[in-house]
Write a structure and sequence with these properties.
There is one protein chain. By secondary structure, the chain is an all-alpha fold. The protein has nine helices and no strands. The protein is globular. It has one domain (about 30-235). Helix 5 runs parallel beside helix 7 (about 155-180) and helix 5 (about 95-120) packs across helix 8.
Amino acid sequence: MDVVHIFITTFCTTFGAVPVLFIRRLSHKGKDGLLALAAGIMVAASTYGLIPSALKLSNLFTLVAGILIGTFVLLILEIMIPHHDLEHHNDTNTNISLFIIAMALHNLPEGMSVGMSYASQYVNLGPVVSFAIGLQNFPEGFLIGLYLIIQNIRGWKMLGLVTFTALVEFSAGLAGVFFGQAFSGLVPYGLAFSAGAMLFIVYKELIPESHGDGNERISTLAFIMGFIVMIILTEQLR
């Protein structure tokens, strides 16, 4: 069942891109709101799910080490891989392959967090983290699909590229389960690593993008709503 749950969670990215097939234009305010909503969900998943669970399974040193490792890994990837802003980069000569690779790598910590959470000794942690990541995968898939449409990548080809990023997340989820079960001592590090990586993505990518077009107020409200909704839903699942 864990594999099924991981599959459903990761492929919410593809489901989120389906509406793009029928939308030709979305306002900056709408896109910024979706980005901020996803940011709020990810912060709640990290601070309300991953970090407390890592602490319960280990200690403060492990938590801090895992968060720092996750942060620095994402920082290195950010430096090594040419970066293209999701919303503000409109150059038609953009290398789509590099963009897709960057988004796929962005999904690695999300998949690992889901897999590690199912491998932990806390029965309810897997569904909570899986639900959180799946929920934020919807707007993420939508925005990736929208970017590709802007670059004249349409139809099934667009969905195929979005699905590729989901496959990377799915593979990372399976790897997370394997390593978590084979090396149980790595589970708290994996949870903390995922939290650090997700917080890096939120602060480095999602929040700046959602504030780039003068929609700071609506984005802030969307962030807070995403955070609150995720906490409420998490409590309902416990």
